[in-house]
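Deliverable D4.2, example record:
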Amino acid sequence: MPSPFHPGSIAAKPKSASVVDSVLGWLVLILLLAPGLHATSYYIDPAKGADTNTGVSQDTPWKHLARLQREELSPGDIVHLRRGAIFRETLHTSASGTPDQPITYSAYGEGEAPSLRGSDTFNDPRDWSEKSPGLWYAIGFEHDPGMIVHDGTTGRRIEGEDTATTPWDYWYDAARKRIYVRNDRNPATAAKSLEIPVREYTIAPQEHSHIVFQDLDFRQPWHMAWAGWKANGVTFKNCSFSHSPGNHLQFQMGARDGRVAGCRFDDWNLEDKRNYAIQAINEGTGPIDIEDCAFTATRAGGGEDHTAIMNDENSWVRSVRRCTFDGQHGNLADDGIVIWHLAQQATEVTIEDNTLRGLGGSAIIVQELEHHGAAPAVTVRRNRIEEVCLRDDLDKEALRLRVFTPASRVLAHHNVIRGSFDGRNDHFGIGITEASGVRLYHNLITGTDNAIHLKSSARDAIIANNIVTKNRGFGIAVQPGSTVVLLENNCFHENGGGDSQYVDLPASNLSADPQLQPDGTLAPGSPCTGAGRMLEEFSTTGAPNIGP
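Output generated by the structure prediction step:
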């Protein structure tokens, strides 16, 4: 018998054809079952498509979003919408992806992002009838559309004919299902583009999970852009949202692991009630992470609440990072970020590297964290806050820290707060109320009423290495019943009411000009270099300069 290692042995002979075929068969089966390898791409083009096409190539696109409802989408599938197209339909999701293979709705081609609109055009003069000179109406509105949009601008909502005084004033007549508009001529000829919402959502409320919406534009529903009910792992990436009577995005009813990244939000709550750009609410919704987004308000807001990001009853916004909030000198009429009544599972909250300016209300509110049993670690750091509380409402401050125990471990550091409204009400830089164990390090506060204000049993605060200069009131006010356990190495300068009220400053604190330079750094030789480390950190993280 030959040696097993001899070239003529069995071990050296090639495998039989049947064995090779069997192995290859298993390999093919494994490849066929591998996730994502059979993901399908679908294409939709309202200008060149046809719903009788296959829809699986750019050369054979479908025409309508509704055509998707006849397909059974699978994890990993991608729905491509033609750039430059306007879709006057509601997008209905029909299936869930998986964490590794989400279903994606995105864009293809060249040009502007595909625009999904809840509105129809009313550009035909026959759409309008004249009730009396200068007063026009359109019919057939089953619901209050919440707004009209002429050439990209919203009209002014009023209560009735008696208050219709300027062009594009409008109101809704529910009994007659009409929209009335004040204009000297037929509204269809007075604007190049005239749109009125007729669909409740741009994306229908969904319970489907692991969905990505990317590079899309959402506008003009009569209620809100999207509501996710128990929808887990939903991501909005590089999308834009504008002109919503209600919310733009609402994560609710236990939706988990939401993400909003690189999106732009403009003009929400146009019905002037209580609505938000992004809201998390109810039944343990969250965590929700928000990053690199922009929030602005072209039209002056109002109503009960016009906040940009709202962590509402029993939910969890876990992080807000690198976002800008441009209130347009008060058009964004309320707060920037509100974190309150967190869900019990919330373990941490981080608000960092954001810029908030021109807001009607507070920039950041952290309040009643433990209402549902949460005890999170909360960090508010490296945020730039300017020109806030412009509506002069009672009880508004640039940064509010209120009603929690030391279990929540709240830390605010390296924030720049410059300027709150000088009105009939006080607007503090940092207001601490009924909260224990707050730590404030390396913050700069200038141009507010009392820079740091403790009241209503705010206890055991640690306040160190802050620069507090040129505020209208006191540098620090510790009202009776409140306590500070550490107050050292802070730099106070030219505060209108004095450096402190109801508290003695230990010798480690300085009363000296910090010598801030226009670029936001300390001049060489500044006596406040200990507190000034905050400014050095800003210069290395790329946050905006303080400036004059």
